[in-house]
Amino acid sequence: MKYKVLFGFLACTLAPALAVTLPATDALAHHSAAQFDFGNPKKLTGVVKEFEARNPHTKLVLEIKKADGTTGPVQFESHSRNNIYRRGWREGMVKVGEKVTITIAPRKDGADGGYVTEYQLPDGTKF
Predict the structure, then answer these.
(1) Torsion sign (Cα): 57, 34, 87, 67
(2) For domain 42-120, is the CATH number 2.40.50.140?
């Protein structure tokens, strides 16, 4: 009987606490896309240094020639793993060391990076 009481107490106190705090962790990791200029798309070509298909955003690091003339790594983000999968991406398609062309929504503040709206692989595959 005492276990039923203890379980009931924990269920009534712990469940609401988890229901409130767990969604907050995702909210902290996610952010608005307002920082990107989707009305001014740009195409860039570079060599893949890192690619992580994950949620809530995919991470891409390309070695590119920057606006100031220097070459270096620039980090981009794009749709979630689920969204790029629905657009045709499959595990292993984006390879480190390969040259890819991306279409991005650049950052409104002019900083390096942006939001990838399309990937084009060396064989012409787009997603």
Answers:
(1) negative
(2) yes
pLDDT at 20: 44
User: Side-chain half-sphere of 58: how many Cα atoms within 13 Å?
Assistant: 23
pTM: 0.73
Q: Cβ atoms within 10 A of the Cβ of 84, count?
A: 19
pLDDT score, position 76? 98
- Residues 117 and 127: their CA atoms lie apart, in Å, by 9
Question: Quick check: helix, strand or coil at residue 92?
Answer: coil
d(CA 94, CA 79): 15
Q: Which helix (H) or strand (E) holds 7?
A: helix 2-29
* pLDDT per position as a tens digit, 102-115: 999 999 999 999 99
CATH 2.40.50.140 occupies which residues in the chain? Answer: 42-120
Q: Which residue has the higher pLDDT, 12 or 62?
A: 62
Distance CA 69, CA 98 (A): 21
Strands 71-78 and 99-106: unpaired
Distance CA 72, CA 46 (A): 10
